[in-house]
Structure to design on (109 residues):
């Protein structure tokens, strides 16, 4: 009789633990989405600037997604020409010749 009582107690403990873990699994908060923006020189030499500077282009999305995957992210959230306030050294100074603005790719998980 003692063995059956011990087995019943063990089964009850396992069942209670399983139910508790199942209840906790449903109450977990989802992982936060991580985003990171990369600035790439527009004259990087790979010839992808045309794709990345055309909003909504299929080749731009492919290039941006590939870039993000190479950096360990799932996909690109956005891409395009970086606004002056998005990169360091953005100071209003007279410039003798127009410089090319860097490209921007924002990656997300």
């Amino acid at each position: 009789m003692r063995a059956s009582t011990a087995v019943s107690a063990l089964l009850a403990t396992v069942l209670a633990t399983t139910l508790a873990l199942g209840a906790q699994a449903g109450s977990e908060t989802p992982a936060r989405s991580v985003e990171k923006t990369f600035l790439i020189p527009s004259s990087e030499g790979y010839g992808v600037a045309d794709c990345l500077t055309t909003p909504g282009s299929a080749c731009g999305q492919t290039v941006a997604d590939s870039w993000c995957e190479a950096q360990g992210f799932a996909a690109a959230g956005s891409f395009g020409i970086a606004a002056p306030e998005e990169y360091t050294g953005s100071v209003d100074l007279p410039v003798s010749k127009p410089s090319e603005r860097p490209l921007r790719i924002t990656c997300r998980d």
Observations:
- Strands lie at 35-40, 75-81, 103-108.
- Residues 2-26 form the longest helix (25 residues).
- The helical segments are 2-26, 49-53, 58-70.
